[in-house]
Amino acid sequence: MTAITDERAIRETIDHYSSGMKSADVASLKNAFHELAILCGYIGDELIAAPIQGLYDWVESNSVPEGYTCTVLGIEITGRVATAKVRETDLHGDVIDHFHLLKVGDRWWIVSKIWDAEPVEE
Fold first, then answer.
1. Is residue 49 part of a domain?
2. N or C of the chain: less Cβ packing under 10 Å?
3. Is 38 among the domain residues?
4. Has residue 16 been placed in a domain?
5. Which CATH number fits the domain that encloses residue 12?
């Protein structure tokens, strides 16, 4: 694949994530995350660290976030490894995600999601 084709495939993976979060659809999320993916980040001052099933459980037990948007801020690709910086926004504010992705065969998978609230500029 070319860099342009890889970037499109990565954006497609992120679209699965965004669609799953926007509609509370775990099946769509499972099209984005590798089965061994992990997540670490903050909700307020609480550190959350879990296997990906933790996100699936949270999505299944919560309502669809009102006003949800997901914007890709940047993608960097090094061979079969990539990072994507993403801003998620809903009524609670902005969160910046850093997704780490691996190319397995011809498919890009998110293998880790780390996040924190977007810092407020002073």
1. yes
2. C
3. yes
4. yes
5. 3.10.450.50
Domain with 16, as residue range(s), is: 3-117
Domain count, the chain: 1
Over residues 38-93, the pLDDT tens digits come to 999 998 888 999 999 999 999 999 877 788 999 999 999 999 999 999 999 987 78
Give the pLDDT band of residue 117 (cuts 50, 70, 90). confident
Q: Compute the distance between CA of residue 94 and CA of residue 26 in angstroms, rounded to an integer.
A: 22
Tell whether 122 is covered by a domain. no
- Determine the Cα–Cα distance for residues 112 and 68; give it in Å rounded to an integer: 21
Integer angstrom CA distances of residue 56 from 21, 27, 119: 10, 9, 26
Sheet with 93-104, edge to edge strand ranges: 46-51, 33-43, 107-117, 93-104, 81-90, 69-78
Give the model's pLDDT for residue 63. Answer: 79
